[in-house]
Amino acid sequence: MKEVEVCNCTTIHDDIINDTKDKLPTDEILCDLSDLFKVFGDGTRIKIICALFQHEMCVCDIAALLNMSQSAVSHQLRVLKTAKLVNNRRDGKVVYYSLADDHVKRIFDQGLSHVLE
C-alpha cells in the first residue's frame, strides 16, 4: 500500500480556507448526500438497481431474479423508495418498480466507471 505524504508546514492559508468554506454545501445537504451514498453501499440494493435498469419489475420478479424472499426485496425497495431512487405504480393487484429518474443511472455509471479504471 502506498504511503500518504504528510504536510510538515504550519502555515494556514486563510484565503484558501475562506474561499473553500464559502463553497461548501451546508451540513444538512452533506448529511443528505452521505445518506444517499449509504443506500448505494448495499450489494442487494445495487443488484435491484441494476435489474431496474433493464425493466420495470414487481417484487415477485425481483425476488425470483435475485433468489431472495419477497419480504427481503420489499424491505430493500422501501429503502430505495425513501431515498427517492425508485418509483412504483400499481396495475391492479401488482405493484411495479422502476428507477426514479436518469440521475440514478448516472450516479451508478459514474461509480462503475471509477471501479473499472
Automatic annotation (TrEMBL):
Keywords: Cadmium resistance, DNA-binding, Transcription, Transcription regulation. SMART domains: HTH_ARSR. InterPro entries: ArsR-like_HTH (IPR011991), ArsR_HTH (IPR018334), HTH_ArsR_DNA-bd_dom (IPR001845), Metal_resp_trans_reg (IPR051011), WH-like_DNA-bd_sf (IPR036388), WH_DNA-bd_sf (IPR036390). Residues 25-117 form the HTH arsR-type domain. GO terms for biological process: response to cadmium ion. One of its GO terms (molecular function) is DNA-binding transcription factor activity. Pfam families: HTH_5. It comes from the Bacteria. PANTHER family: ARSENICAL RESISTANCE OPERON REPRESSOR ARSR-RELATED (PTHR43132), HTH-TYPE TRANSCRIPTIONAL REPRESSOR CZRA (PTHR43132:SF6). This is Transcriptional regulator. It comes from Clostridium cadaveris. The lineage of its organism: Bacteria, Bacillati, Bacillota, Clostridia, Eubacteriales.
